[in-house]
Amino acid sequence: MTRIWNLALAHSTLFIFRWIGRRNHVFLPVYILSWEKKINTAELSCNADYCTILLIVGLTALFFDLKHKLYFWQLYTVIRIQSPMSWGAWTLMAITPLSMVWAAIHIREFFPNWDWKFSILKEIEKFAVKYKKYLAWIILYFSVILGIYTGILFSAFNARPLWNTSILGPLFLTSGLSAGAAVIILFSKRPKKE
Amino acid sequence: MEVTDGTYPQLEIEIRSERCNHCENSPCVRCCPTGASHYEDGGIVLVTHNDCIGCGACISSCPYDARYSHPDGYVDKCTFCMHRVKKGEQPACVAVCPTKCMYFGDLDNPNSEVSQVLKKRKHKTLIPEAGTKPHVYYLI
Lengths: 194, 140
Known about the structure:
- The complex is a heterodimer.
- By secondary structure, chain A is mainly α.
- Chain A has one domain (20-67, 83-187).
- Chain A has helices at 7-35, 48-65, 84-105, 119-130, 132-155, 168-187.
- The longest helix of chain A has 29 residues, at 7-35.
- The model of chain A has no long low-confidence stretch (mean pLDDT 77).
- Chain B has one domain (19-139): Alpha-Beta Plaits.
- A two-stranded antiparallel sheet of chain B has the order 1-2. In chain B, strands 3-4 form a two-stranded antiparallel ribbon. In chain B, strands 5-6 form a two-stranded antiparallel ribbon.
- The longest helix of chain B is centred in the last third of the chain and has 8 residues, at 113-120.
- Chain B starts with a strand and ends with a strand.
- The mean pLDDT of chain B is 92.
- The chains are: A mainly alpha, B alpha+beta.
């Protein structure tokens, strides 16, 4: 029987990506709407920091799942439209630094006295805060791709009949959306009762 | 590979040697994120070892389970003995077969031995429903 990935590692990692993708699907539209003052987000905290940490954990796990680790950089020498894993690799390459920036501009919600020390970092933070709404939109688009690509990746394997179905992408998207919403509710700050 | 078919006492046993089918529409080539899996001139599917990251997408996508992880990390498979074919020799399995039951050649050339055999003999491919258009044919 051929090894079909280390199920425990690969699937839990891909689940993390789906969850992060969906958490962003839910969180960022709420954030963008709140920017437009259409809804009140007092109950939402910016839980961006642990999202970034989980993203890095997921990437690290995927790296360790590779069997030819020292050649991982070959992923970034080519863009292969037909390969969903190539999309995923490039999406992760884009969303990881953007997610770090997003986490960085919200770090004072976790550490109120945080100081960036260097003026250039302060300038970058100022720039990111100024264009925060655009950043949110960009991350949102990438999160949709990140969320759906795992489903497309599995559905592209015509060797596995139960995976080779067009429903897998939307299925991953909807299952993760509910998980993302649940996690936001779980970790959101609620106003103290008077 | 030994496959038993039918209902007792009408049983049939087929013994066949399986390898990479060097498909025309290879899912392994399509799924490869780095382009390590590729078609050589003539249609043989190969893996460039130094481009392979060992992600295993091709192993999962192959309907024939023809690929495996080499102990050195990269994914490996039957190459149809490309090093021999380039020199005009037959693949090792064809060359050493004691009953000469295997044929290898250019399917694009209608006069080649392999094309002539396929014209004259009934044959089948494995898992044709996968749509991979395999280039290994089994004579019935």
